[in-house]
Amino acid sequence: MRRIDRYVMRNVGGAILLVMVVVLSLDLVFGFIGELGSVRGNYQVLDVVWYMIVGLPRRIYDYLPLGAFMGCLVGLGAMASSSELTVIRAAGVSLARITWSAMKPALVVVIIGVLVGEFVVPATERYAQSEKAVALGAGKNVASSEGVWHREGNTFIHLNAVQPNGVLHGISLYHFDDQRRLTSASFARRAIHQKDYWLLQNVRTTRLEGDRAVTETHREQRWDTTLSPSVLSVLIVDPTDLPMTGLYTYASYLNKQGLNGDNYWLAFWKKALQPLGTAVMVLVAISFIFGPLRSVTMGFRVFTGLMVGLAFKYLQDILGPMSLVYGFDPLLAVLIPIGVSGAVGVALMRRAG
Q1: Looking at CB atoms within 10 Å, which of 77, 149, 233, 235 has the fewest?
Q2: The pTM is what?
Q3: CA dihedral 292, 294, 297, 299 (to 10 degrees)
Q4: What is the per-residue pLDDT across 45-79, written as a single tens digit (0 to 9) for each?
Q5: Could you give the angle at the alpha carbon of 135 between the alpha carbons of 130 and 136, nearest 5°?
Q6: In angstroms, what CA-CA distances link 105 with 71, 111, 268, 274?
């Protein structure tokens, strides 16, 4: 029995690895071509290559669920095509035993995904995004297309780049009164975090006083804000690339500020439930092999797997924004696709059994 377990695990694990290599190779090629459109200033082709290399952990993390799903479909499908699964079942091996053997490589993928998503991706993405923004001239434009917006009370803040070492580039501050009228606008090329405040450098401030505008320049200026480097480092990274601890902290911070943090809660629940979602998709793949895809060609299995995987992803992508627009709990937007897929997998496994 152990030899059969190892054989199933080896086939499924090898297929998962093959799928990941193929998918990542294609994604890197198309990603590199797309990133070449951003080349300008100090951001040149070699910088694009480095940006792609540093961003590789994020791409691995993004495709691990698809790799586990397609790997199980391809690995078990090859065994089904050669009648090996039929022979194994005829030898008295239960469907549950085969399912557990196929699940083991997927569980390894889940563990790798959690570790990469929590400890590797956030650091590499912060570094990649901040270095790219600085290379594109983050301190030269008043409000570049790169960077992030944030609101603190009646002040709207735009940051062109946030470096992990507590240095900001291109800080724009827009102050409004209680009647939502602009009272002043400031731009600083750089800011360095001190113990409990930020030190703005090369500051230019324009104040609106009645019918005239008064402009002031300062070499250095103190900026008191509740934004810390740890909070700001969250802003420059896409919510899906943040660790769950960072998502929870920043979503709670937004709620305390009276701002809407549903986008970060949605990303939090997606990451928290991704292991469950991956396991459910693997169960669907296994149920397909023992059910409707038992005797079809490998090409048809791959095509069906892609369609099912895309349907799962698109359902999450549709329900996620819907939860933000219509105000229902983001947790439901994540659980519904998992629940539907799990029900389909269990139903097909019962029929196969």
Answers
A1: 149
A2: 0.80
A3: 60
A4: 999 999 999 999 999 998 888 889 888 888 888 88
A5: 100
A6: 9, 10, 25, 16
